Structures are given as C-alpha cells and as structure tokens.
C-alpha cells in the first residue's frame, strides 16, 4: 500500500526499514509526551515484526505505514490505523514522527 503526497510517501514497511524504526524508537525526544516511556531495543524489534506480520493478514487488524520523505527516501515516522470495530467502521489513528522533522 502506498499513499504519496507532494512531500511524503506513506507506504507499507519493508524489511530494510527495521534499522530506521529502531533509530526512531531510540530517540528519547520522541517519547517525551508518550505514556509508557521509551521502548527497549527488543520492544522496538517486536514492534517492527508486528508491522511485517500485519501485512500477511486479510483483512488487516492494523495498517502500519512508514512515513518517508519522497525526495530523500528517508523514514521519518510511522502511522498506525488500528481497526477497533470493522462492522461499525471504527478505528484509532496513532503516529510517531521524528522530532527533528
């Protein structure tokens, strides 16, 4: 799945995104306002693995997308659309964006 904008590309995560996701999750500034604090490296790896697992499910329970700068191809964040009640059309939206961006 891909959703391009003029500046960004929202797309499914690929295996080569793991290092960028771990680097993003390691930034303490990202978690300043987030409850639960910073993820450990193991938790970050587990989060990334879940993004890969969700790709194989139909229908997906969560649409996890990488936020990439189109011109640079650099991952700067992620967005999650979690389907909470498919029959009622309900979902929750969450995102993580690099504080540097």
Describe it for me?
The relative contact order is 0.21. The longest helix has 14 residues, at 41-54. The model has no long low-confidence stretch (mean pLDDT 91). The protein has a 5-stranded antiparallel sheet, with helices on one face. It has 2 helices and 5 strands, in the order ββααβββ. With 101 residues, the protein is an alpha+beta fold. The two termini are 23 Å apart. Helix content is 23%, strand content 36%. The protein has helices spanning 18-26, 41-54; strands at residues 2-4, 8-12, 62-69, 74-85, 90-97. Strand 4 and strand 5 (90-97) form a beta hairpin.
Describe the SSE topology.
Blueprint: E1 2-4, E2 8-12, H1 18-26, H2 41-54, E3 62-69, E4 74-85, E5 90-97
Antiparallel strand pairs: 1-2, 2-3, 3-4, 4-5
What is this entry, summarized?
With 101 residues, the chain is an alpha+beta fold.
Name the shape in a single word. Answer: globular
Q: Tell me the strand order in the biggest sheet.
A: 1-2-3-4-5
Q: Total helix count? A: 2
**Approximately how much beta-strand content do the residues carry?**
35-45%
Helix content estimate: 10-25%
Structure keywords:
101 residues; alpha+beta; 5-stranded antiparallel beta sheet; 2 helices; globular
């Amino acid at each position: 799945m891909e959703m391009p904008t003029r500046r960004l590309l929202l797309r499914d995560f690929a295996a080569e995104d793991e290092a960028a996701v771990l680097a993003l999750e390691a930034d303490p500034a990202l978690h300043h306002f987030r409850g639960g604090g910073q993820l450990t490296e193991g938790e970050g790896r587990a989060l990334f693995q879940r993004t890969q697992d969700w790709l194989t499910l139909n229908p997906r329970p969560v649409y996890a997308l990488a936020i990439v700068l189109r011109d640079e191809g650099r991952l700067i964040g992620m967005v999650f659309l979690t389907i909470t009640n498919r029959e009622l059309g309900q979902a929750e939206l969450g995102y993580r964006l690099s504080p540097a961006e």
